[in-house]
Each structure stands twice: as C-alpha cells, then as structure tokens.
Specification:
It is a single chain. By secondary structure, the chain is of the alpha/beta class. The chain has one domain: Rossmann fold, CATH 3.40.50. The chain contains 21 helices and 16 strands. A six-stranded mixed sheet has the order 4-5-15-10-11-14, with helices on both faces. It has a five-stranded parallel sheet with strand order 9-6-7-8-16, with helices on both faces. A three-stranded antiparallel sheet has the order 2-1-3. Strand 6 (132-138), helix 5 (142-151) and strand 7 form a beta-alpha-beta unit. Helix 2 (52-63) packs across helix 10 (232-246) and helix 16 (374-388) crosses helix 18 (427-434). The chain is globular and about 60 Å long. Bound molecules: pyridoxal-5'-phosphate. The site of pyridoxal-5'-phosphate (PLP) has 16 residues, from helix 11. Pyridoxal-5'-phosphate is lined by residues 110, 112, 142, 224, 261-267, 316-317, 395, 420-421.
Length: 496
Amino acid sequence: MKNLYTSTRNNTIELSAKAAIKKGFADDKGLFVLPNIEDINIDIKNLTELSYQDIAALVLKNLLPDFNAKEISSSISNAYSNSFDDDKITPVVSVGNFHVLELFHGPTAAFKDVGLQLLPQLMTHVLDAGNQVMILTATSGDTGKAALEGFKDQPNMGITVFYPHGGVSKVQQLQMATTGGKNTKVVAIEGNFDDAQTNVKQLFNDKKLKQAIGENVSLSSANSINIGRLIPQVVYYFDSYKQLVNQGAVKLGDPVNFTVPTGNFGDVLAGYYAKMMGLPVDKFVVAANENKVLADFFTNGTYDRNRPFFKTVAPSMDIQISSNFERLLYYKSGQDSKYVANLMSQLETEGKYQVSQAVLDSIKEDFYFGYSINDDIEASIQDTYSEHNYLMDPHTAAGYKVMRDYQQIDSETPMVLLSTASPYKFVGAVNDAIHVSNSDDPQQMMADINQKTKVAIPENLKSVWSLPIKHKDVIEKADMENYVLAKVKEVFDDKD
Ligand SMILES: *Cc1c(COP(=O)(O)O)cnc(C)c1O
C-alpha cells in the first residue's frame, strides 16, 4: 500500500511512481504524494562515505519504489556525469557564520538543473513502446531553460515552454530563445507567470486537446508539481548535511537549519521530505520577495492571493500560487485529502482559504516564513560582497535577509542558505547593488562584474550572447491550446 502514490485531493486514488511521473498531476487537479513518507528512514550514519550519486540512488530507491536498481543507476549517471561543473554537484561553501549550498553548477546555472537533468532520464523508463510525450512547462525564468536542456533531443519526447512576455531577465530570455534541438519549442505569452501556470494546468485537463493530439501522445509537466522533478531535489539536503559533517562543521546527528528562497514551494518542500525521512533539521526558513503570500499566511493562517502582483528583482519568485504548498497541507492535515480539496476549491473560487489553528501550529513547528523587498535584496548582495567577498544572486539574497532575521531567534543551530542561481543570470540587479559597471548593456555588465569581482562566469552564460536566436513566438493566453496542438504535430509528425 504505502508504495503507491495518491492525490492530495482524493486519497482513494492509487498509482505507481512511474504512472505519477508520466501523468504529472491528478485528474482531480491534485498533486501526487506518497502517504507515510515518515515511515522511510535514511540512516544518516551511512552517508558520510557516499558520493552525491550514491545518496541519490538511496533517496530514489525509497521514493520511486517501482524503478529497478539499474533504471535508477543509469538515470543518475546520465544526469550527473558530465553536466555539472563541480564534482560535488551541489557544493557547500562556508561564508562568515553560515554555509551556502550552491545549487547552480549545472548546465543552465540555476538550481532547477538538479531536478531537470534527472526527470527526462526517469521519463525514459516510464514511456511505453510507441508512446510519445509532450512536456508543457510554465516558467518564471529558470525552469524553462533547465527543462529545455534536459529534454532536448530525447527520443519520443518534446517540450513546449511558456514564459511571461517581459517577465524574465535578458540572460534568461536569451538562454531560452537560443536553445537548439529538434523537439524544443519556446513561446512568450501576454500575461504573468501565474497566468501561464494556470493555463498550462488547464491544458492538461482539456479533453478536446487530448482528443486532437491522439492516444499515443501524452502531455506531462516538468514543473515541480511532477514528482520526477521534485524528488531529485531531496538529495541535496542529505548530501549537504554529509558535506557539513565531513567538513567538521556539524556533529553527526545534530540538527541544522536551512534557509530557502521560495516561489512554487518545491525546493523547500523537498527539504521537508528529507526531514520526514530522517534528516536532522530544526527549522526551514522560507523567504519570499515582495509577493509575500506565504509570509502573510504565517502570521494569520490565511492564504490570500487577492493582492497586487509585483515584478521584482528576483523574478523566479514572482509567484502568488505556490503549487507545492498543497503537498505540505496534505501532510500537515494528517493526510486529509478531503480537507485539502476543500481548501483548494476555495482558492480557485475565492482566491483564498484559511487553515485550522492546528494545521498552522503544525506548520510553524517546522517552518519560519519571511520576505525581502527589493531594497533588502540589494542591501544583502552588497553586504555579503563587501563583508565576505561572496557574490550572491538576487534570489539567494532574498533568502539572506530572512536568514539574518531568523538568526536573531536562533543563532546556535548551524545555518545553510540555499543559493538558487548564479549571480550572472541577473546582472542588472547585481550591478545595482555593487555598482561595478557604468554600462546598462547586460553583456558589458557581465564582463565588468567578472573583471571587478573575479567571480568566474559559467561557460553556458558566456556563450549566450553569440548564439543564433531560434525562438521568437509571442502569443495571447487564449491561443495556448492551439499552439500546443500545432507543436505536437510539428515535433512528432516529422519523425514518420
Ligand atoms: C525556481 C527558483 C526559485 C524558487 O524555487 P521553488 O522551488 O519554485 O520554490 C528560487 N530561485 C531561483 C533562482 C529559481 O530559479
């Protein structure tokens, strides 16, 4: 029983991990979850000698029980053998009295690579012979490129990425628009990220579209609502703990805290999975930007998205509907799928819901929420650079300030700040903080920041300026369905 996934909105559903990865999310619009994760126990004593890849195998074996050992090991080795520029995959570096878990050493310089290098490999073992899958992804900037790189030229798979027109950084936009490969499609939509995400979710439930694309092609998701993307992120929580123990910074068994900049709540939820599986964590400190729906929830238990939407200097966190929060509600309500379904239907109809005091209290046992406005983010980039000679991207910096707030409450427990992107993906915001370039051309800024700070530019970002532009489409929200249909035909009919 406990080896099967169910839906956050209907716990009578049962399906294998493979089926859950193939489908992306449930027909009732719920997310797939594994009940009783707390019964899994990864013994941290055994971690110290293991490589990142070994720990990944251990985590995947437990959370994806219907994959066999060979499928897991080949997926992991294909995903992580050559694509990261650091042997540790996700190295931990110490800065002042905290530690930074650097998640940006993959092929697109954002933490999304950790999940999105592995998801297509897992997908290979999920597709039946003769079946094809079109991945549909809404992106606030980083998921798009990371998913494109992961799925590019994978046999029997195609990918279509939707991003908010004008809502991503120049570097992010170029990264996506220059993607090669025969099966990759990229399009800007007139709307913000939440519009894109909501519409993509609708496409998955669109019967007319399903009929038009035929039985052999399925639609799936590369967002962190897909367990095949979420579960790889559990690994670096265990691995970072191992690194801290091996560096002598933490005594084996002692708790640590993690600060996580959040958008869709996927990254930090993966940490909570690790905690449920036995990792000694005291608190997860969750940081939002000015779109602080979750920080407000923390004060009064009301999740309310009826509010103005802000475009901030940390655009990958410009989100008002944190999809994965639904999974936390499932676990924190005692796996009460009726309760979750009811909250989610209120969110859909009224744009808000209120949780019970018991659920809020239970969340507060494990989480602390805060936020940074743009000025805080700038000040944080500036402070860590001038005080510690460490250059942060604006998302990581949004976490930094909230981390400092929390350290006023607990200064003893070792603190790990997750760094989610290279500073070179967001040169405008970084330069506004440290003022090393007089140019307003992002390419020049990148060169000036490099020259002044001596922080290396990731190879994949250096090359972005000279690659040919391959994707220029801009469409209205209402045209997404037709667009997908056309792209399914282009990608899969070519091959006959
Ligand atoms: C996606 C992203 C986030 C937010 O992560 P979630 O899993 O959506 O909470 C934070 N920072 C960067 C740079 C990102 O790309």
